[in-house]
């Protein structure tokens, strides 16, 4: 039973992580239709920037690892979710800094667009 619960915790953490990253990248554009989301998106972007700049572990990675341990599955690498699931799969590892810069640019563009639409 512990294994099933652990897999569930790990799966929920994975879904939350993926949703967080998706909202980080695209949430500013959602604010074009729902302006109150811009406040939430600023917080999410600040957290994402802090994680990227400091290379600190994300609490969702810790949660996923706790579930994985309980299920008897291998842990994520110390680098965390993005290096494990995205780097080398979605884009080459050598592109990491460029991808981070591109995500930052997308966020800025979404905020400029939100500013134009909301003012």
TrEMBL record:
InterPro entries (UniProt xref): DUF2784
Pfam family, one: DUF2784
Keyword Transmembrane helix applies: yes
Keywords associated with the record: Membrane, Transmembrane, Transmembrane helix
Ranges annotated as spanning the membrane: 7-26, 32-52, 99-118
Name recorded for this polypeptide: DUF2784 domain-containing protein
Provenance organism: Nocardioides nanhaiensis
Organism taxonomic ancestry: Bacteria, Bacillati, Actinomycetota, Actinomycetes, Propionibacteriales
């Amino acid at each position: 039973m512990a294994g099933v619960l652990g897999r569930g915790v790990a799966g929920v953490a994975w879904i939350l992580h993926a949703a967080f990253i998706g909202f980080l990248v695209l949430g500013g554009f959602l604010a074009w239709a729902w302006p109150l989301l811009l406040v939430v998106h600023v917080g999410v972007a600040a957290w994402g920037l802090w994680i990227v700049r400091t290379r600190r572990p994300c609490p969702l990675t810790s949660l996923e690892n706790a579930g994985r341990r309980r299920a008897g599955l291998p842990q994520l690498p110390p680098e965390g979710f993005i290096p494990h699931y995205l780097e080398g799969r979605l884009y080459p590892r050598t592109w990491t800094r460029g991808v981070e810069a591109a995500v930052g640019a997308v966020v800025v563009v979404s905020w400029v667009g939100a500013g134009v639409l909301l003012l």
